[in-house]
Design a protein that fits this description.
Elements lengths: L1 H34 L3 E10 L6 E12 L3 E3 L1 H10 L3 H21 L7 E4 L10 H11 L7 E6 H5 L3 H13 L2 E7 L6 H4 L6 E4 L1 H6 L4 H16 L3 E4 L5 H9 L4 E2 L10 H10 L2
Parallel strand pairs: 2-4, 4-5, 5-6, 6-7, 7-8, 8-9
Antiparallel strand pairs: 1-2, 1-9, 2-3
The structure holds ligand C2E and calcium ion (3 copies).
The site of one calcium ion has 4 residues, from loops.
Protein name: Diguanylate cyclase (GGDEF)-like protein
């Protein structure tokens, strides 16, 4: 038995080293990319479900084009950043970038109502967050109502003291707070009424099931109804088909985001998309 375990360790070790080394390499490369401004942003439009409403805002999504490994999706580098000390740098880099882009677009007369930036739960634990957000806004000469911060359920469901203070401070600044991936976690709308949240992003898993599952239809309908009664704005995520759009419009979902409207786009392509509207 002793021999067996030694052997299994010998067999296992090189792989583990590889995993750890790969991770360390990516972490260092990400640190480098941040320092040398090698990340970039894509922007995905959010439009009113009522076709007359038009563009309501853009979600800023961070992109990392690795010099050797190519595009690394956020689903890979965001968790890596969360587990190292890089996630705050990413949040501030992203916010700074998105706000400057919005200010630049506005100065050129492009009618973009607001921009939304994603925050990790870890970002909400930083006591410096509200001050930094206010500084970025004022450096770009933007108003708090120009910015939405998307936060996840897990962050606000079991808030520690700092998170509670930060969420209140951001709300008091006048920033719109949006609950991302709503419906995938454990929060019910009942949990949310005491939180200063003005918007829900209905997770794409509901939307993709709409055409085939009456349960998804019933759930979506009742979430939309409750949200409306509570005065919450709802953005449906991952809208890909005309049928989904029709259903959501009929049920008074406020806003739509997804490939049906547009994929997330680099700034120049977003400008071309905007020019094609109305
Ligand atoms: P998310 O916030 O839920 O963002 C929506 C994701 O769905 C994006 O993936 C977007 O490209 C994708 N998507 C949009 N419309 C459709 C559609 O119609 N169909 C399908 N199948 N997908 C659609 P992306 O850009 O890969 O981002 C993945 C996640 O990474 C985001 O999920 C967000 O949680 C996180 N993320 C991205 N950028 C940042 C960032 O700067 N900071 C933090 N903390 N997280 C970020
Ligand atoms: Ca989001
Ligand atoms: Ca989401
Ligand atoms: Ca998601």
């Amino acid at each position: 038995a002793a021999d067996d375990s030694r052997q299994s360790i010998r067999v296992f070790q090189p792989d583990m080293n590889q995993v750890v080394q790969e991770r360390l390499r990516l972490e260092n490369d990400l640190r480098d990319a941040l320092r040398t401004n090698k990340l970039h942003m894509h922007y995905q439009p959010q439009v009113g479900s009522d076709p007359d409403t038009g563009l309501l805002g853009l979600e800023a999504l961070t992109r990392w084009q690795h010099p050797e490994l190519g595009n690394i999706p956020p689903a890979k580098f965001i968790p890596l950043a969360e587990e190292s000390d890089l996630i705050d740098d990413i949040a501030f880099w992203t916010m700074d970038h998105a706000c400057r882009q919005l200010a630049q677009w506005r100065s050129r007369g492009l009618p973009i109502p607001r921009v939304a930036v994603n925050l990790s739960a870890v970002n909400l634990q930083n006591p410096g967050l509200p001050g930094k957000v206010a500084a970025i806004l004022s450096a770009c000469k933007l108003q708090p109502c120009d910015l939405t911060l998307e936060i996840t359920e897990s962050a606000v469901l079991h808030p520690d003291q700092t998170i509670g203070i930060n969420v209140s401070a951001l709300h008091d600044l006048g920033i719109l707070l949006s609950l991302d991936d709503f419906g995938t976690g454990y929060s019910s709308l009942g949990h949310l009424h005491h939180l200063p949240i003005q918007e829900l992003k209905l997770d794409s898993s509901f939307i993709s099931d709409l055409e085939h599952s009456t349960t998804a239809q019933i759930l979506t309908r009742s979430i939309l109804q409750l949200a409306e009664n509570l005065g919450l704005h709802v953005v449906a995520e991952g809208v890909e088909t005309e049928k989904q759009r029709e259903f959501l419009q009929r049920q008074h979902c406020n806003a739509l985001q997804g490939y049906l409207i547009s994929r997330p786009l680099p700034p120049a392509e977003l400008e071309r998309w905007l020019a094609r509207q109305d």
